[in-house]
Fold this protein.
Amino acid sequence: MNAIREGQIEWTFDAAWSATKYDDWAFYRRQYQRCAGGPKAVDILALGGDGSTLWMIEAKDDRRNRREAGKGPLPQEVAQKTHDTLAGVLAAAMNAVDDEKAFARRAVGARNVRVVLHLEQPTRPSKLFPVAFDPADVRQQLKRLVRAIDAHPVVMATTSRWPHWTTTWSPG
């Protein structure tokens, strides 16, 4: 099993899958982030067991912290991160080193790209921590923005089990 922690969410991928925390890559932090005004990055990149699909996963946990007002619309942010990450992965396939370069080359060779927004919201909304987003609305807006990359993006609304990964909330 391959486990990745993003904030207070633990992602556990099936053993046949390769997953990495892209925004922690040395290539992204030391080289690519200085390019073109500071490109953004999705949190996790995962390749299915056969390597045919690259999963680009952005995790947002709004259970305890409100979204910053200056960030703009969530679907636009995710679309921008998706776009910038695709360009970064291509650059990494040519210019990164070691494991990052190997993963990037496999990712560039994938036949499909899937975009996933994992959106955690308060389970018991209150005035202090309201439910800020309707997942169906976010999905529709995201679908329009990333259609050329993934015609059917996924918006996961809570920690859950997918066919090839599990997410669990683990504060700490």
The beta strands are 2-6, 9-13, 18-20, 44-47, 53-61, 112-120, 154-156, 165-169. Residues 74-95 form the longest helix (22 residues). The chain has one domain: 2-169.
